[in-house]
Amino acid sequence: METEKKTIKLKSSDDVPFEVDEAVVHQSPILRNVVQDCPDPEHKIAQVKGKILAKVLEYCEKHVVVFVDGGDDSSSSSSAGDALKKWDAEFISEMDLSTVYDLIMAANFLDIKGLFDLTCQRVADEIAACKDHKEIRATLGIESDYTAEEEAEVLRENEWAFD
Q1: Is 154 in a helix, a strand, or coil?
Q2: Model pTM?
Q3: Dihedral, CA atoms, 44, 47, 50, 51, nearest 10 degrees?
Q4: In Å, what is the CA distance from 25 to each residue of 114, 123, 125, 157?
Q5: Which helix (H) or strand (E) segment is 5 a member of?
Q6: 73: pLDDT confidence band, cut at 50, 70 and 90?
């Protein structure tokens, strides 16, 4: 007996509408609770803009099988897991850092652990690829709070850390 898939209507903070399967929404404890507790036909996600909610839902749709099945109990799940890891790598690498930052915030707010981990790892990889603090600042768009003299003093005091 086949069960009918229930679709959920979501709306982003900038009023972009989305319609997704219930299983997609259930990957987020926050969204699951909103849908269960509120009988409205459409649910506004006021903290997430449309561009970012689209990415969140794309991630959740791709991961819905893993979430619903819940395990790797066959050899086919191993190849599916490898394909999913490849998809994750492509998904996250094609985004600019600004989008990744917004996705971190959305994944944290919506409590989607896999997406949160993936986005944080991307930022960590960007930092690890930098050669020094100046490159990290440039990559992440961080301005120095120190004057040139203060920075030179800090570098001199902590010279051992840069060997």
Answers
A1: helix
A2: 0.81
A3: -160
A4: 14, 26, 29, 51
A5: none
A6: very low
